[in-house]
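OP here, attaching both records as promised.
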Amino acid sequence: MLIAGFMPIWQLVAAFVFIGGIGVGGEFPLVDSYGSEIFRGKQRGGRLALIYTIAVTAAPFIVYITSLTRG
């Protein structure tokens, strides 16, 4: 994704974003399976819900913080 930001034409940007998206797409099954392994049975649902809540709200929160510092 970082490389895509430096590409001069949109076709290269699209290609690098597609490649990066493949890696990001595999992240969710990995988090579920790893989280299921490390958390105890009674904690599993709550902890996975917390992980996904942080993941979903992180981007809007970062945008909000960035808009405050933009001046």
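Record two, same layout:
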Amino acid sequence: MSIHVSLDVIALIAAIVGLGVAAQFLAAKYRVPSVLFLILAGVAIGPEGLGLITSGTFGDSLSTIVGVSVAIIVFEGTFHLEYRAIREASKAVDRMITIGAGIAFVGTALTVRLLLGASWDIAFLIGALLIATGPTVVAPILAVVPVREEVATTLEVEGIVNDVTAAVLAIVLFKAMTARDLAPRGYVWLFVQRLALGVLVGLVVAGVVWYLLTEVELPAEAAPQTARLLALAGAVIAFAAADSVFSEAGIVAAATAGFVLGNLDLPHQKGILRFKRDITSLVLSFVFITLAALLEFEELFALGITGLVVVTVLMVVIRPLAVFVSTAGAGFTTNERLFMSFVGPRGIIPASVATLFAVRLQTEAPPTDPAGANILLGTVFLAILVTVVIEAGFARRIAGILGVTMSGQ
């Protein structure tokens, strides 16, 4: 029996990998972000399609698999970020991850509260989760839409930083919902505590990897492969070490390690980056297909037209407001700011964390809140589905209409 189950899981993983590669191939051929095809593939093999994947397919290990996968994705995203580019775009970046994030957080929470009638707890939890645009969805868009470096860097940094801070903020808020004996000052401390631990662990791991690559002599024929494997190990170890203390600190550690290593003068750096991109493409395929397969349309339909109105407000009111306020006087053209307003898809972090919260609200959290769990999961997944399909699917066309693509590309 166990052998039969194992073979079924192996066949399923093989199918997911195959669909992921097919999605990457179609994305390259038609110059459309791969995320679009990955979500469609996931829905096709999930409960709403062929039923090959259900919520019980991977059991309790799914959250761990997703966590490690996101760590690898975030590590790769920060690894290729140059400090110089961030410094040049720092004015807009600083505002996007502070003022822009604040507008998204409060605006989303108010919208959910007023239109869906959710409790303030659930509304602010959804607001925190939907701050994150995320490198997992932004990077595939920028891969096929060549825009000015300052525009791309601002969107990438916003996605990476907000992915991390949104996850930590959401978990702190969730703790506030389920453990009301903390004072407000305690929530701030929880937030700072997790960020600080993640940064510290990331710095330590980056230092160890740097030392091994630069100070330990290796045979010339083995050095390139060893460098690639050490970088991959660094991402996973940074995540695991911080995650073992605070579950939400692991992504911070992976992001920190990636950024530090990417800005150091490492041997075989280009080879490491190419290897990480290949691994990330594979991991991205697995995570998006698997999570999309867990979508249940019943939860989406339960929100009705009001749910679509909420997502529309997020896309055409809150996102543009956040972008235009954050980029005022930062050297972007109006059309570039319009394009940045259009590119705000939500991705892996909101999906995985919302799923975890929904399960806890339904089964563990005192008091249980199944209605809130349904609003939480339905709103987050609807926002992901609509923003990815529309924004990833039409990003290149919108960029062309606005004239923000680099000439000759």
